[in-house]
Amino acid sequence: MAQTHTARLMDGTRLAARIIETSSAAAEDIRRRTGTAPCLATVLVGEDPASVTYVQMKRARCAKAGIQSRHVALPASVGTADLVHAITELSQDPGVHGILLQHPVGPHIDERAAFEAIAPDKDVDGVTMRSFAATAFGLPGFVSCTPAGIMRLLDEYGVELAGKHAVVVGRSAILGKPAGMLLLGRNATVTYCHSRTADLPSIVRQADVLLAAVGRPRFIGGRDIKPGAVVIDAGYNPGNVGDVDFETAKDRASLITPVPGGVGPMTIAVLLAQTVQAAAHQLNVT
Length: 286
Ligand code: NAP
Description:
Layout: E1 8-9, H1 12-34, E2 39-45, H2 49-64, E3 68-74, H3 80-92, E4 98-101, H4 111-116, H5 129-137, H6 145-156, E5 165-169, H7 176-185, E6 189-193, H8 200-204, E7 209-212, E8 230-233, H9 246-249, E9 255-256, H10 263-282
Parallel strand pairs: 1-9, 2-3, 2-4, 5-6, 5-7, 7-8, 8-9
NADP nicotinamide-adenine-dinucleotide phosphate binds at residues 146, 169-172, 174-176, 193-197, 200, 213-216, 234-237, 263-264, 267.
């Protein structure tokens, strides 16, 4: 009789709930001891429906966890200088402990300048150059939320990274690039792939740990998954579809993240955890 194999699911929803529960207790402790609840400022440029939904979701999760949020909505027509000004004000406001600029912000804006207006100790989304450098150097600091969430999932499921070949498909500043740095920091041998990579499938087939962070539905098929590989699918495409073809990949992988319910919930959980951490630091709660 033919053997059938199905990968074990990496349950991001369950782990995220646990992280949020811990953050919520820490937020309450901060509020009790200082009289001030942690506060996350969200900045939204324009009314892109997906961005509006993401911000609403993040604020709702904050409220449930006892984290206040302050929302700054700016018109799509806002220029770089006014956006930088609004973020600088939040950076200087002692009542705000963390700042999230929902991105993308629109092609007419210098997004890097806007990110860099976030004070380093309020960069709970881990988007500034300083946070990236700390991640790359393995120093303390805020980590981009999705890569940090991925590492927590890998740890939760006891994935050994040292000496493993980790292939990261995608090199964005907030996802692929920092994720590769974190994997490198854990002694994986890391290969980055991107849109100019030649013969991508031959590299993907070597991955002991595969991270798909591309933004193309079912871009990586099961036949290119090395048997027994750990597959992390960060992709989130219309119709709740990941970057990996789950149905075929699950028959080859040893562990795999579902979409939805894998990486997605972890991103928000890390955002809340880092907001509480920022508040504790700024309010001198140890
Ligand atoms: P991005 O900025 O658009 O970057 C996509 C990356 O994929 C780029 O590095 C690009 O290469 C690479 N790529 C595009 N086409 C490719 C191809 N044909 N072959 C190989 N590489 C290719 O996207 P992102 O922000 O990193 O997001 C990636 C995915 O993750 C999206 O589905 C997004 O929705 C999802 N995401 C999920 C979460 C979450 O919380 N779950 C958070 C963030 C993002 P080049 O650099 O050469 O252009």
